[in-house]
Design a protein that fits this description.
Elements: H1 2-11, H2 45-54, H3 62-71, H4 75-79, E1 86-87, E2 92-95, E3 98-102, H5 109-115, E4 124-128, E5 136-139, H6 142-162, E6 170-171, E7 187-190, H7 214-224, H8 234-246, H9 251-258, H10 263-270, H11 276-294
Helix pairs in contact: 3-6, 3-8, 9-10
């Protein structure tokens, strides 16, 4: 708690250094089992509607939120998607990687103050295998498919319009588009030209990459303006799993779609949200079951 509080103050330049930088909880005081500081939640449909009204088509948050809501992908998987991962003809999306942040070399507090949140930071994004090696191909519903088609066409037109001023990204090594048993390196992504161009799905009109860090701003707006402080991007994943469960999808189907390591995680964590729809469906089953008994 102290570490996060001082880090919060440091990031906002309220203090110039944190006295909690090397703070360690004594072993005897550490919990036996790690606990989350914030529980992921199911996002009700009326709240999702407000979110899309606040971040409509054309905003930088629209496509990432749409993908999370309609596919249940993890944060790093969403922002690691490239257009080659989408099969428009077969209405499918392949999860082949995740994107992660490498902080780079240690910087002094003064350097951090000057460069945090800017391109002068020596950190960088890189591709790696999906969590738990959860390579998978999932089907896309018609709504997200249409949104992706429109986004793809828009990016092609923007690329032609901006021409030499369009932002391009490359990775150091060849990208993978299928499961491999080989250990992938930290495949660094930058604007330094290489033979391996990265056609990000999440990008602005000028081609600049919309990174996962923008979710902090999105979440802040949803917390304060839409008055739903429980929101975080990972809750889109929980919501997707719950919606599938509400509509009769099997636990195994949801497990494979979300890329879980085991079925227990799917059942106990991602589909255990008690919603109005689940209650309503349960009551229908209850009445039908006993009405049959009375016939």
């Amino acid at each position: 708690l102290l570490t996060k509080s001082f880090t919060y103050a440091l990031d906002r330049h309220y203090i110039i250094s944190t006295p909690a930088i090397n703070l360690v909880v004594p072993t005897k005081k550490q919990p036996k089992k790690a606990t989350r500081s914030k529980k992921h939640v199911y996002i009700p449909q009326d709240v999702m509607q407000k979110i899309f009204e606040r971040f409509p088509e054309g905003s930088s948050a629209y496509i990432p939120i749409m993908i999370g809501y309609h596919t249940g992908l993890r944060l790093g998987e969403i922002y690691g998607l490239v257009w080659e991962d989408i099969d428009f003809e077969n209405k499918a999306l392949s999860v082949n990687r995740q994107v992660q942040w490498e902080a780079g070399e240690a910087r002094s507090e003064e350097e951090k103050k000057k460069t945090n949140g800017t391109s002068k930071s020596n950190g960088y994004w890189y591709f790696s295998k999906p969590k738990y090696n959860s390579f998978r191909t999932i089907e896309l519903d018609d709504v997200i498919l249409e949104a992706l088609k429109k986004e793809h066409d828009k990016q092609l037109k923007a690329r032609a319009y901006f021409d030499k001023y369009y932002n391009h990204y490359y990775c150091e090594n060849e990208m993978t588009y299928a499961k491999t048993d080989d250990i992938l390196p930290m495949n660094k992504v930058s604007q330094e030209k290489s033979p391996y161009e990265v056609n990000f799905i999440c990008r602005r009109e000028d081609g600049s990459y919309i990174s996962a860090r923008t979710t902090q701003h999105t979440s802040s707006i949803i917390h304060k303006q839409l008055h739903f402080p429980q929101y975080d991007t990972h809750s889109l994943r929980h919501t997707h799993g719950t919606i599938l469960y509400e509509n009769g999808a099997s636990f195994m189907y949801i497990k494979e779609r979300l890329g879980h390591k085991n079925l227990q995680t799917t059942i106990e964590i991602y589909t255990n949200h008690y919603t109005d729809t689940i209650n309503k469906n349960g009551n229908i089953v209850l009445n039908n079951a006993f009405n049959k008994e009375n016939v």
